[in-house]
Amino acid sequence: MSSRKSKSNSLIHAECLSQVQRILRERFCHQSPHSNLFGAQVQYKHLSELLKRTAIHGESNSVLIIGPRGSGKTMLINHALKELMEIEEVSENILQVHLNGLLQINDKIALKEITRQLNLENVVGDKVFGSFAENLSFLLEALKKGDRTSSCPVIFILDEFDLFTHHKNQTLLYNLFDISQSAQTPIAVIGLTCRLDILELLEKRVKSRFSHRQIHLMNSFGFPQYVKIFKEQLSLPAEFPEKLFAEKWNENVQCLSEERSVQEVLQKHFNISKNLRSLHMLLMLSLNRVTASHPFMTAVDLMEASQLCSMDSKANIVHGLSVLEICLIIAMKHLNDIYEEEPFNFQMVYNEFQKFVQRKAHSVYNFEKPVVMKAFEHLQQLELIKPVERTSGNSQREYQLMKLLLDNTQIMNALQKYPNCPTDVRQWATSSLSWL
Amino acid sequence: MAHYPTRLKTRKTHSWVGSPLLDRKLHYQTYREMCVKTEGCSTEINIQVGQFVLIKGDDDENPFVAKLLELFEDDSDPPKKHARVQWFVRFCEIPVRKQHLLGRKPAAQEIFWYDYPACNSSVNAETIIGPVRVILLPPNDVVPADLKNEKTLFVKLSWNEKKFRPLSPELFAELNKPQEGAAKCQNSVGAKIKSTESPAWTPAEHVAKRIESRHSASKSRQTPTHPVTPRARKRLELTSLGNSWMSQQASCASLDSPGRTKRKVAFSEITSPSKRSQPDKLQTLSQAPKAPEKTRENGLSYTEDDKKASPERCMILRTRIPALKTIDIRDERTLTPIRGGRSSSVVPSVILKPENIEKRYAKEAETQNEATPTPHRVHRKSSLLTMNRIRQQLRFLGNNKSDQEEKEILPAAEISDSSSEDEKASTPPLPRRTSRTGSRNLRSLKSFLKTPTKTPKKSPKPRTPRCATPQIRSRNLAAQQPASVLEKARLRLHVSAVPESLPCREQEFQDIYNFVESKLLDHTGGCMYISGVPGTGKTATVHEVIRCLQQAAQANDVPPFQYIEVNGMKLTEPHQVYVQILQKLTGQKATANHAAELLAKRFCTRGSPQETTILLVDELDLLWTHKQDVMYNLFDWPTHKKARLVVLAIANTMDLPERIMMNRVSSRLGLTRMSFQPYTYSQLQQILRSRLKHLKAFEDDAIQLVARKVAALSGDARRCLDICRRATEICQFSEQKPNSPGLVTIAHSMEAVDEMFSSSYIMAIKNSSILEQGFLRAILAEFHRSGLEEATFQQIYSQHVALCRMEGLPYPTMSETMAVCSRLGSCRLLLVEPSRNDLLLRVRLNVSQDDVLYALKEE
């Protein structure tokens, strides 16, 4: 920026960088079926074979894809569906119904959505006619009419499958599984869930009709693979228009992945969570630091992003408190120490604070009680303290029992970083007896 | 009424004889003759157009009788064979309450000309059984009692759902020469138009009246050629120079108006439930105070009587015109100021429309609302190509409709003119013409009045579920047949595959069969309660029993019965069971309360002798309500003497009657109970073997392993089949050479069993991150310290920090640990309080401590 040469250079870079950011952000935020599958080849094969059999042979199936959040369940099914639709004779031959347990919160809505997506006769535009009972019998009738060889297979994808089990009588699941186990229209029911105890949630009749196929996605990769994923996720594709820049960028990524500090950051991240979404979060944060004047990602960027990721939210709030509020928190901490985690009330905290101010403090002004009360209430609003029971209107606020929602270690860490903390307050925090 | 295809019937193959005649509708291939061949029998029966035929119906004793008017094949894939017929009715098919109208006893072989245009005249040609001899008798003749041939039927009267009438002479003459008659049948015109008067006439109705009278006058001339009023004739001659494209436009435009469409929608409900089952539905629904009854014989399509005071009226009648299925007849008063100073005028118009075309273009019509072409006449000169061109033209022309109005009248006449010419030239019958003549009259009148025409159009109609025929669309590509042994095995192992017999349930089968059969033979009713854990073949056995009974009923071993099935799980609410039963029993629709009343009336009061009803109630426990009125009613009906209802109730729990039913309900249920035990391992093995008969896909040990595993766990046959199916897949994947005949070994089934039954918790713990594992360790340590199975998050966190310090690891922040905790909570390794994320969150393990220890120790 200082010299003209670098300015012109940075102009080209700015052009490329906006593209880089667009490409990479898209990759981090969207679950595009174009990205690679990591460590789920076996599961993928199982699923796509199953879907193909439904599409080509008209064989009904049901399967659950189970895995923790961010393990790529949706990506797996999207991948499989995309591959399926690429087969020409299949793409014309298949109907898809996508449901989500968070959207279709009961069977009535789910049925309407199914008939809408299947475009049955009681659908006009986006409206579905008929009552719940009519819709159910209508849909069942429709699915019953078909048979294995002549009807178009339907693939039902139930996202957040566990939420469907809370529907009344599990009617929808029973019927879907029943169809999948009888000679009607061929359907494939694919449930996505993160709950490992999903089978226990199914009612016994429903469970018996479910084929008990489960595909587990476990994030079962080790650290070397994690680094490889990191590299792949950050690298630019070969079809990037500015070849030179892409080459440089990829080279830089390669260097980064070999750098020791980066490896440490990644290792730490890997230890906390193998979830690829958290990796995306880290990369996104560090990508934001890339600008025209700072065109290539460095280890420092990653480290700072990692710090942002692992920030303690409560401690951050404590940083923004006033000295009086800090003093109150320290008083509460002492009360906790003395009474072994028993709840306290405002009066106790106020007394403790008074003792401190009268005996020792020179730097802390002896605030009036209403002012201290206000500070106390502010702490409650920040949810750093919480009433033990629900607030009832008639009880006096001074005597309401409270609990501190901060751990000792959190308080001490926060105090150390607290800007311009009076020395005597800090001393008081370390020991309740220090004023003696 | 439940209809069950029977297995016993011999198959018949239908094939065309001769080459297709010119495709008159561009989509049809018409034939003169078809050949029916019975399987296993060398005789072939040739049926020609114009012959009388028997058509398969619900009653095997008395198949429908009809006269074949046309044979054609549509363009669907695979092409379906259709036949257009003129129906005859037997006396027994006439509603009971109307039979007295005949006023005498019908002769044994007497049938009646069915003069009811709303009846669907198109049937699947495959349902034709064979020819029959029908003799027409003059009204004065006596039906010969039991002539030499039992197969001969006699027609003397016609029946139009209202009254019996003698056959008109020309019809009579025409019918007696069936071979040529087909082509000419449309020429005969009945003279039975009786105008229906209503006392008050508005000016507009005077017009209507005039139309009608003229119309009927034109008809009553009964000339063999088509009758034309002079005015229409003149215009016709004047406009015969107009090119056929114009005629196209007009006919299309006349089918185009969206306004029509809407009304059409309203009435499509009426027309679609086809055929005779509810013959008087249409009449009751039409708004006319007096229902149309002046339809003429032999495919005359047009009723013109509904010109009553209702402001606008439209009717769609399903007529028996060959090649034209739907005919819209509507009289509507358009309130447009006209030259003559009249305030309103009646513009009746007749729209003829082949239904197949409509279907075909339903989609297209959606996008091009303007032009739905009806290729009435184009075929004469052209192929599809021209037709397409015309369609494009139309689309273009559709935009300036006002221009068309003038032309429209002329081509309308032109159409009819060309059609009459066409008829003379071509042999296939075109009775549409009669209706055309009517339309011509009306059109000429219209031109006189100069009213803007409404142009109706058919678009995909929004149907209510009431009349829709729900169906998933059929696949474009045929399902692939299994190629390898493993694929064949997989197909047979699918739970949906219905085996020929149900092994291991012979005793239960026999018991249920005997129970139901005895009730059927005694003409009484009764209840049976069947219980058993899921997957023990309860429903399958009952289905098998019903199937056998249906076969027996066909062989006249047991009296015929009606079978109804309801499933508690397929209802939204227990009271809906009434609705379903009523609908399956009678086809009626009613609300739950009303349905309950109707059913109670049917079962509890002494009605006419009816056949026994067998009711299967699956998943009975879901019909439980607080008052238990549903269960009470279900078990109370069979106790009535005249009900003749057999209830088979299925549920999972053996002690359901004692546990959830009130005394009065369980007492009515009675003590006929049956319980299905879970399958033992040898039974499961037998089931698998019987399914895999003659198919060497499994090692014996592999089957045995699966059977033993499943028997030990649940005895659920579905599970067993699913595991075996999975084993075939594993075997197929693991195979190196794709061609080698796969044999499922014990290893494969072991893998499948493991896949389905193994707990995933341990794997999940093993694959979790280090921090997550550390957190689990901290939980164990905290539990160990406190001696409780529950701890707050704060306690665990401090344990965790202590553990990290001990191992020299950097300890995580509170937020990170909280995230870990909620992650483990979301996959239910931990049980955490919902919607609470603070230090006081209580945490429990959802896995046993030993499992956690085992999983963590492995590394």
TrEMBL record, chain A:
Lineage, broadest ranks: Eukaryota, Metazoa, Chordata, Craniata, Vertebrata
InterPro entries the UniProt entry points to: AAA+_ATPase, AAA_16, ORC4, ORC4_C, P-loop_NTPase
Gene: ORC4
Quaternary assembly: Component of ORC, a complex composed of at least 6 subunits: ORC1, ORC2, ORC3, ORC4, ORC5 and ORC6. ORC is regulated in a cell-cycle dependent manner. It is sequentially assembled at the exit from anaphase of mitosis and disassembled as cells enter S phase. Interacts with DBF4. Interacts with POLQ.
Pfam families to which the protein is assigned, alphabetical: AAA_16, ORC4_C
Family: Belongs to the ORC4 family.
Listed name of the protein: Origin recognition complex subunit 4
UniProt organism field: Saimiri boliviensis boliviensis (Bolivian squirrel monkey)
Major place of residence: nucleus
Every AAA+ ATPase domain range: 59-202
Automatic annotation (TrEMBL), chain B:
Alphabetic keyword roster: ATP-binding, DNA replication, DNA-binding, Magnesium, Metal-binding, Nucleotide-binding, Nucleus, Phosphoprotein
InterPro entries (alphabetical): AAA+_ATPase (IPR003593), AAA_lid_10 (IPR041083), ATPase_AAA_core (IPR003959), BAH_dom (IPR001025), BAH_sf (IPR043151), Cdc6_C (IPR015163), ORC1/CDC6 (IPR050311), P-loop_NTPase (IPR027417)
UniProt name for this protein: Origin recognition complex subunit 1
Segments forming domain BAH: 45-170
UniProt lineage: Eukaryota, Metazoa, Chordata, Craniata, Vertebrata
A GO molecular function held by the record: chromatin binding
Stretches with biased composition (Polar residues): 269-287, 471-481
Family assignment from sequence similarity: Belongs to the ORC1 family.
